[in-house]
């Protein structure tokens, strides 16, 4: 932009902010620091009809009104106390307040300096403040709810001109069914707070939100095995599975649901953990009631995944040992770095060599729609049928027949979700002999019929 054009831009910060808002809404290029929230700006104006120059102060509910919103989150609030206290201890000296908000943007729990209460209330950043995006436009709480992702909003990134002295960072907290449950937020009303300084608040808030989410999950399923899983290439957010005595997955946090494509209809019947990983008979047999670190092999690509298995809480602890309860439900996110440094998995003697196993699996991948004879696979491995079947099971944790069936079901699930082929056509394309055979196996392994599965995905 040349100097002559620059002279036409408004000089007063409030007017300049309004100019930028309307420019973005009209389809103009967003300033560099606005690009990430430009979609929210457009949503605030076009969908919610909010005036960026709206001067009214945010709405703050009475304590009685707040209580009605708190009740639905009582269990979460109880689990969150320690993490909220710790987060506030870290950010307090920097002049922040900490807010826990429900999914409608109401602050139902907070930590803040009572001497600065009036100042925070002026922006609504206090107990009872309402920060839904449809009411306040772009902000760290409301936009986090709208987009279900962590959001850091610094001063002029807010939609309303009135809020351009406010800085906030919000992180979502997801329920055990993967839906948004709450938002953890830290907010500052310091007009001199730099963007780089405020940038430090985001990671702290995310870390605390993940810890609250994990503690809540572990508390809800403290009578089951909790398996924390670390992906091979990313230890930023662990996946959590609740596994029953039959080694079936009965619950999963949002990260695990997304990674392993787990749907709600898989949980009532219980999905075996060994449909995802090669079976390890020692995982659920610890000699002591303590965390057990292991390395599991992923079905299909045979990649190595670190896990930390926490045994079910003992009945005696549930009744008498509050210290044991706290120990059992504490977050393990801080152990991820230590898990990465575990010694390599002990070599298991027997089984096919990695090279032979890869050749066999590649053949199955290419010919799953055809009738595959075990003799063909044994030939690829240069072994007798009997010896091949036994060694394959050692390597994969299942028989060749079950492995092939799972591969076909995996393909069928994708086709049911992404195509309009009939169930019969999907069955034949995936290599099953007929629809009834396909439906019977699908119900056994997935826990529902192909038709119901397809309906649940749309």
UniProtKB/TrEMBL annotation:
SMART domains, per database record: HTH_ARAC
Keywords: DNA-binding, Transcription, Transcription regulation
Domain of life: Bacteria
InterPro entries in the cross-refs: AraC_XylS_family_regulators, GAF-like_dom_sf, Homeodomain-like_sf, HTH_AraC, HTH_AraC-typ_CS, Tscrpt_reg_AraC-type_HTH
Pfam families in the record: HTH_18
Keyword Transcription: yes
Transmembrane segments: none
Keyword check for Transcription: yes
Domain HTH araC/xylS-type, residue spans: 358-456
PANTHER family found in the cross-reference section: ARAC SUBFAMILY, HTH-TYPE TRANSCRIPTIONAL ACTIVATOR RHAS-RELATED
Protein name: Helix-turn-helix domain-containing protein
């Amino acid at each position: 932009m040349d100097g002559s054009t620059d002279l036409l831009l408004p000089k007063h910060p409030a007017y300049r902010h309004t100019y930028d808002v309307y420019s973005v809404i009209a389809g103009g290029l967003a300033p560099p620091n606005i690009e990430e929230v430009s979609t929210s700006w457009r949503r605030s104006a076009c969908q919610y009809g909010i005036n960026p120059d709206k001067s009214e102060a945010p709405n703050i509910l009475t304590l009685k009104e707040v209580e009605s919103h708190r009740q639905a989150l009582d269990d979460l609030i109880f689990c969150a106390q320690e993490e909220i206290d710790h987060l506030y201890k870290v950010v307090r000296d920097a002049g922040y307040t900490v807010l826990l908000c429900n999914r409608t943007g109401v602050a139902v729990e907070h930590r803040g300096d009572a001497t600065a209460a009036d100042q925070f209330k002026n922006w609504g950043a206090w107990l009872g403040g309402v920060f839904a995006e449809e009411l306040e436009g772009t902000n760290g709480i409301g936009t986090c709810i709208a987009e279900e992702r962590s959001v850091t909003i610094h001063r002029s990134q807010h939609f309303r001109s009135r809020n351009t002295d406010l800085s906030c960072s919000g992180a979502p907290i997801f329920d055990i069914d993967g839906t948004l449950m709450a938002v953890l937020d830290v907010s500052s009303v310091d007009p001199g707070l730099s963007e780089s300084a405020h940038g430090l608040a985001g990671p702290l808030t995310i870390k605390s939100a993940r810890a609250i989410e994990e503690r809540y999950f572990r508390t809800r399923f403290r009578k089951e095995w909790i398996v924390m899983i670390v992906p091979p290439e990313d230890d930023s957010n662990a996946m959590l599975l609740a596994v029953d005595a039959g080694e079936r997955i009965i619950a999963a946090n949002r990260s695990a649901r997304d990674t392993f494509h787990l749907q709600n209809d898989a949980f009532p019947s219980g999905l075996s953990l060994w449909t995802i990983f090669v079976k390890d008979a020692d995982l659920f047999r610890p000699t002591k009631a303590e965390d057990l670190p292991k390395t599991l092999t992923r079905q299909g690509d045979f990649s190595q995944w670190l896990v930390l298995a926490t045994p079910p809480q003992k009945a005696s602890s549930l009744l008498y040992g509050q210290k044991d309860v706290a120990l059992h439900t504490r977050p393990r996110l801080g152990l991820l770095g230590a898990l990465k440094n575990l010694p390599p998995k002990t070599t298991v003697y027997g089984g096919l060599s990695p090279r032979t196993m890869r050749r066999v699996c590649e053949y199955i991948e290419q010919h799953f729609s055809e009738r595959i004879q075990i003799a063909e696979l044994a030939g690829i491995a240069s072994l007798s049928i009997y010896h091949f079947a036994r060694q394959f099971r050692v390597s994969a944790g299942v028989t060749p027949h079950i492995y092939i069936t799972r591969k076909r079901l995996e393909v069928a699930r994708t086709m049911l979700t992404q195509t309009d082929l009939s169930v019969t056509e999907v069955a034949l394309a995936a290599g099953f002999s007929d629809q009834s055979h396909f439906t019977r196996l699908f119900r056994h392994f997935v826990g529902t019929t192909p038709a119901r599965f397809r309906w649940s995905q749309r």
